[in-house]
Structure to design on (628 residues):
């Protein structure tokens, strides 16, 4: 097998699928200065794709284009074979249909040079289930973006049972080189990480609407004017770390642990064992690094003000 | 009973409890130009309270003080009776202890003029359970803030079984006049709204850490660099409204409804009946008002860019 190009030496990427996600990826890669080759079997794919790229370009320009970035670097191809010609990386963003993805990944695997990593945008399927028809499944991997991929930094990277460990490492390094915020998971979990958290919140919201406990507008405003103002800079864990005062997460769990038994959501909590308590406390301390609680409080105030201002809420 | 002052004519408010929440309320009311009378039985309460107010004052100054706002308008009182003298409104922020709150609310009810509304910051207890010892429970109500109360706009207002309907209305109008984003609930639900959503997310996160599926840092970053970048302006419902493309929430639910059965969180979803589907779709359409999907997409891009910039992530 010929050597794979280094993650930061990738010059040409292929986007398979030209819907909102595939088009968003194409726009992002173009803005980062890559050559982009795209293919989608739909007859109006080129028109739609160029429309998506054009629509996102003002935002990408405002955020700052990489040197050499241009929409002219987009080549819309007539066939899959043409789209993977000379490529260094493939991102698949076809509709969420397991059989379709199985077949498509096998076709990409068949068509692309053997050293090229093939990543899937799937938000639902484990790669273990999608890579089954591939002749070379070791180079297939999930690289799950968040909508819109041209603005939201997060990419969750996770391999399937047959994915090579080296491919996991390469893919994470590639997305980082491409400017993404990468979370590399060491196992397949349905929904990955962010969607599991989002889905728990969404299901609780649906229950509340169903029971007449809250309206759609109340649910949205309870987040946008409440905890949502903190989550772009301190996630839910660090937010609770601050809720513990100077004692941080340790105080929070030791004193408010019993509230895990309260009926404050329909989701039962895990038992707060010493192991779980310590893992959460140590994780918060590691994440806080050298920031004291006072530092984090000052950071919270500064960032909430910045967000209130940015949103026109100040 | 003498007439209650109009919600927008309140001049003097009383803060009972000088911890982080009570102190945050005092700072907020001072910045809004109110006279604030405070009481806390702790011996070092005045020192702590003035420290809290001083610590929050730069942030409040940056956001803009109301005319006449001054830290000199804070009077720390030696007794509860003194603290409620001549007040137009009482906000109670004592520790979360049901017996303590029951007794304290009864004492405030005993001491305060009969036309004064008494609001509790409780994050956990229904007013029905707290107002039982009050002689005049009709004027007791929950006004649940989010930490820090001097920066986060949200206040959830909900009465207990004995609370007068007119008091619910008055309290919501008062908090609105004081510049808060008010959600008025028509029934008591454990955890109110925002904390139920937050708690569902938090419990799913604890399960993931417990099962070794994600680290504390991964959980936080999956939100801060992912959906958290959208939640300060479009809540979870409107976010999914956009996930449906031009078809909005209707398309989203009709096509992705089956994913409610996916094991993407440990929380089971409610059955997606026609009634629930319609309530969610109509709620999103009402919330979107005259904004088309294209308008919302443009708004999303603009706001995500503003947040990325404000957070230094752009």
């Amino acid at each position: 097998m010929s050597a794979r190009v280094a993650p930061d030496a990738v010059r040409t990427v292929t986007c398979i699928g030209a819907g909102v996600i595939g088009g968003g990826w194409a726009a992002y890669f173009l803005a980062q200065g890559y050559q982009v080759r795209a293919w989608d079997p739909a007859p109006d794919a080129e028109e739609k794709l160029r429309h998506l790229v054009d629509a996102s370009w003002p935002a990408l320009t405002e955020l700052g284009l990489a040197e050499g970035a241009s929409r002219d670097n987009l080549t819309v191809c007539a066939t899959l074979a043409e789209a993977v010609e000379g490529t260094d990386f493939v991102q698949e963003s076809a509709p969420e249909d397991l059989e379709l993805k199985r077949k498509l990944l096998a076709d990409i695997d068949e068509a692309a040079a053997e050293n090229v990593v093939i990543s899937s945008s799937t938000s639902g399927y484990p790669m273990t289930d999608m890579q089954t028809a591939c002749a070379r499944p070791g180079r297939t991997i999930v690289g799950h973006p968040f909508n819109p991929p041209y603005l939201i930094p997060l990419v969750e990277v996770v391999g399937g049972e047959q994915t090579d460990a080296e491919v996991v490492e390469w893919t994470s390094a590639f997305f980082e080189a491409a400017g993404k915020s990468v979370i590399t998971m060491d196992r397949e979990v349905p929904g990955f990480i962010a969607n599991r958290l989002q889905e728990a919140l969404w299901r609780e919201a649906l229950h509340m609407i169903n029971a007449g406990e809250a309206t759609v507008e109340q649910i949205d405003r309870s987040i946008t004017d409440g905890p949502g103002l903190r989550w772009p800079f301190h996630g839910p864990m660090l937010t609770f770390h601050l809720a513990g005062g100077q004692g941080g997460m340790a105080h929070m769990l030791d004193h408010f642990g019993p509230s895990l038994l309260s009926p404050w959501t329909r989701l039962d909590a895990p038992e707060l064992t010493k192991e779980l308590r310590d893992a959460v406390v140590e994780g918060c301390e590691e994440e806080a690094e050298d920031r004291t609680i006072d530092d984090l409080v000052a950071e919270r105030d500064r960032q909430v003000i910045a967000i209130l201002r940015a949103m026109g809420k100040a």
Remarks:
- Chain B has two domains: 7-184, 225-310.
